[in-house]
Amino acid sequence: TGLPAGVMSAVISLPVFLLGYRYLSKGFLFKTFLSMLYIAFFLDFNIIFQKFFYLDDLLASCLMAGVFYGLGIGLVLKSGSALGGATVINFIIKKKWGLNFTTTNFIMSSVVVLIGTMINDFTSAVYTVIYLFLGNIILKKVLIGFNQHNLVLIISEKYKEIAEKIMTELGHGVTLLRGRGAYTNDDNCVI
User: Fold this and answer.
1) pTM above 0.85, yes or no
2) pLDDT tens column, 15-29
3) With contact defined as beta carbons under 8 Å apart, do 130 and 57 qualify?
4) 56: Cα within 13 Å, side-chain hemisphere
5) DSSP codes of every residue in 42-104
6) How many CB atoms lie within 10 A of CB 135?
7) How buried is residue 49: exposed, middle or buried, by Cβ count under 10 Å (0-12/13-18/19+)?
8) Are 100 and 94 in contact (CB under 8 A)?
9) How far is Cα 63 from Cα 85, in angstroms, rounded to an integer?
C-alpha cells in the first residue's frame, strides 16, 4: 500500500475499535485508543533500531519475538488496556461468551497463520506457531503470575449445588468452611 506499518496498523484496528465501543467500557476503550496510537508511532519509529537488533537465526528471532510479544501484551492488558485489532475482538468474545483471553488469542492468531500459509511457505508458518505458542505462555504468566494456585471464596445458601457443579463440571476440588456474617451474625457455608 505504500503506507508505513504503524499507520496501516491503526487504520486496520480502527473498525474493530469502533465495534468495541458497543460492547466495552469507555474508559477501557480510551486507554486502548492511546495504545493504538503508541503502537502506530513505535512500529514506524523502531525501524531506526532494526539494524542493532537483527538476528540472523530465524528460530532465535521467533523465540525473542515470542518473549517480547507475551511481555508487551501482558503489561498492556494488566494496565487495563488492549492493543486494538484482535485484542479488542478477544475482549468482546470474553465478555459475551466468557472464553479465556489467551485461548481465544491463540486460536485467532492460528487462523491468521493458516490463512497466511496459503500465501507464504509452510516453514514460516511453523516458526510463527512457535512464536505464538511461546508468546501466549509468557502472556499467561504475566496475566496470572507464576503461582498456579488460585483461591476463590463463594458464600451462598446454595453451597451444596455450587460445590457439586464445581466438582463435576470443572473438575476442581472444593473445601467447605463454616463462616459467620459480621453484620448479620448469620452462620454461612463458605466454598
Assistant:
1) no
2) 888 888 888 888 888
3) no
4) 0
5) HHHHGGGGTTTS--S-HHHHHHHHHHHHHHHHHHHHHTT---STHHHHHHHHHHHH---HHHH
6) 26
7) exposed
8) yes
9) 23
Pairing between β-strand 187-190 and β-strand 177-180 as defined by DSSP bridges = antiparallel
In the chain, pLDDT over 70 holds for what percent of residues?
Answer: 97
Dist CA 3 CA 77 (whole Å): 28
The secondary element (H helix, E strand) that includes residue 177 is strand 177-180
How far is it, in rounded angstroms, from Cα 5 to Cα 76?
A: 20
Q: Which residues of 103-124 are buried (b: 16+ CB within 10 A; e: fewer)?
A: ebbbebbeeebeeebeeeeeee
Distance CA 64, CA 58 (A): 10
CA distance 138 to 64: 11
Cell numbers describing residue 35: 495504545
Burial of 39 (0-12, 13-18, 19+ CB in 10 A): buried
pLDDT-based confidence at residue 70 (cuts at 50, 70, 90): very high
